[in-house]
Amino acid sequence: MTTLTRHRATAPKTERLRKYRPDIQGLRAVAIMMVVSMHVGLVDIHGGVDVSFVLSGFLIGSQLLAEIDKTGKVSLSKFWARRMRRLAPGMALVIVVTAGLAWLYASPLRFRSDMKDGLSSALSVMNWRLAETGTDYFANDGTQSPYQHFWSLGIEEQFYLAAPIALVAVAWLSRLVFRNRALVAVFLVAVVAGSLYLSVKQTASNQPLAYFGTQTRIWELACGILLALSAPLLSRMNVGLAGVVSWLGLVTTIGTALLITKETPLPGYAVGGPVLGACMIIAGGCAAPRLGVERLLDNPVFNFIGNVSYGWYLWHWPILILWPDIVGRDMSYSDRFRVVFLSFFLAILMYYSFELRFRTNKELVARPWKGILTGATAIAAAAGAMAFAMVAPLNLSTSGSVASSGSVGYSDADSVKSSVLQKKLSATTLNALPNSKEDHTHYGCIDDTDVKKFVMRDNCVIGDTAGRTTTVVIGDSHAWQWGDAFHQLGQQLHTKVVTMAKGGCSPEIYSITNPELNREYSECDSWRQSAFEEIKTLHPEVVVVTSRIRQEVTESGAEKAFKVLEASGAKLIYITDTPQPGRNVPDCLATHTDDVPACNPKQDAAIQFPAFRATEQKVAVRHGAEVIDVLPAFCASGVCPTVISHQIVYFDSSHITAGYAKSLAPYLKPTLQKALAG
What we know:
Distance between the termini: 84 Å
Oligomer: single chain
Strand order of the largest sheet: 3-5-4-8-9-10
Number of domains: 2
Number of helices: 28
Strand content: 5-15%
Structural class: alpha/beta
């Protein structure tokens, strides 16, 4: 228990502070509806979590400051017990149930990674795990974790742990030195300014860290505490003005939230709109204006939604992520509504049968240590379940597998055609499946997004490193994926192979927008130029160009690039882009061991931007390049099988495995051999 000096004098009668704020309950409902509708794809509206952060800051700040005013002290045990009773039981239940659903329905290959996420969620550090792994929150490629939404709860729980200690310490010091709360206000303003600065700065340099980091979000919670500190003053606002402020706050919240898109750099400045709007609603409501936005927000429906909002937040995301696996089909528009209603029903069920039992239990309320112990036990149980699940055997069925032949990977066109008809995974494929996500190239180098210049280094040189001839392979990750094949070819043909690859960076001179950076990919432009300069220095006999086909393709951009490469004097080879299945292949195969065709994309869907492919190929031929069309090695009869002669073709949703790349070395060899001989 922490004790302060004597509390302030009784509030003047002109203050209109209320213990219960129906407008805040309604705003809580608005926030959760914003979050759910955005996540399920019904309305492209952002900022719901930011509004919730402001609400949490205001409510917690109000509780702590009121306790200081009333008793001159703060009972940390009671505060943490209240938080434990409210948050821990429901959180533990959802974590464990989600693990069970993931075991039954999701890809076994993702299970252990998901359980690590579950453990991080139980320990309230999920936001830091997502920041560390560089997660794209808005990715829609099947890689989202069913625990991903626990990032915001992690930030709030870290806040609940530290905020009362910091607030009590600063309030005590302010009372001691200034005999008022001036230092508290200065402290909160400094936190808001510093955290907002970090948010803007890190959004530009490290977007995942900015999005998930506590240091870039704490300003939103601090704004809420600052409002709680200012509530006595705000309560004396003219009621007419207060009503206008509250209505403008709602317009600001919804209006700015609708202006934010998935391409907007977040959090940065963009979340300032919803945060400001929420602050205006709360500030205006402090004066209890009769004609304020409370007239809209105070209704039985919003009150009910506000009550179950915590459970709705917990349930909607795992149901959404696991829904395609549960129903066995891609998400349809009607499925989005099913997810909304099912998760809402589960939230109601959990609220009345589970949450209220812990929140209102007289024994837990009367004895805070029991409340803390109960919450800690629930968290420990969830964490223990996740730790056990991380080492449990994978739920990977081996029943019904077909016998394996001696051939693995591509051998000829017939191997592709026969693979189109394969129904069940072979024993060979099943054995390889658990490690298939790591079956990417072992040879060659690739530069990260932020690298601005190509620098020659040892791991960029593969094949016969003492060879008398030099072959350069240049492109993006779809060039890097061929590393094992070119290492093998280099050794066979006694040529030194230099790989020049940069993620998301086409060797053709296009203006590319990088989705991770949410801006023009200027690093690609400078890197490409330095790679071209290096090619001039190397004087290679052959330059192989290949990359992912992009929607930014222009004929003039391809023309400029091939003109530069042709001027190097090297023989040019252009390898067409590999088909893209559009879904994580190992995950799909793991859940369809007896129905492989369910994972095989149609050729028309797997060949992206066919007109742009034709444009690049035309320009390459114009500059004397030999073309290797890899399509026959991937697709037949209008289908692109994901397993060819027992070899898994892709290790993710786009890139081919090292095993399949090596099997295609004989397919590439004649063209490369001819170019080297020439």
